[in-house]
Amino acid sequence: MTGHGPFDGEQGERARQTVMRLLAATGGAAGDFAGEVLAGRRRPHELLAHGPVVDEFVEEARGWWKLIDALPAEERQRLAAEAWSSLERQVGELATLDVDDEVAELEELAAPAQGAPAPPRRTRDDEDDDWSDRSYLEPL
């Protein structure tokens, strides 16, 4: 270990801002929270106390946990030994990422989903006279 956190210093702050901008562009609970951080209304450390975000992260972490548990013991040990240097490398990559291009791409990908037409509603078949046989839960 190097004696300092990977998010300390100017590079770490650039990486933190990059992560927040990327999260904000993705939407969802984490994206909404990141937007609040970028606007100065929330602090990044509050993320872990924000219920909807925590729920998303816990669910995602469960998936990662299952994947890691499925790995052979030697692979898990290797990954654990390389974790700190991997984190430092990833922070460095985030600090130098062209975040404007990445945010634009994320927003472009999200645009069709936001403007997509609603799925067609099932129309009621008025021609059948066996209405008494229908379940009361069936949509009209």
In DSSP terms (H or I, runs of 4 or more residues), the helix count works out at: 5
Give start-end ranges of low-pLDDT stretches.
none
How many angstroms separate the termini? 64 Å
Q: Radius of gyration in whole Å, from Cα?
A: 23 Å
The major sheet is characterized as: none
Shape: globular
Beta-strand segment tally:
0
The percentage of residues in β strands lies in: under 5%
Order of helices and strands: HHHHH
Helix content: 55-70%
Look at the structure and give the mean pLDDT. 80
Structural class: mainly alpha
Concise overview:
With 140 residues, the chain is mainly alpha-helical. It is built from 5 helices and no strands.
Structural notes for this entry:
By secondary structure, the chain is mainly alpha-helical. 64% of the residues lie in helices and 0% in strands. The chain has five helices and no strands. Helix 1 crosses helix 4 (73-96). The chain is globular.
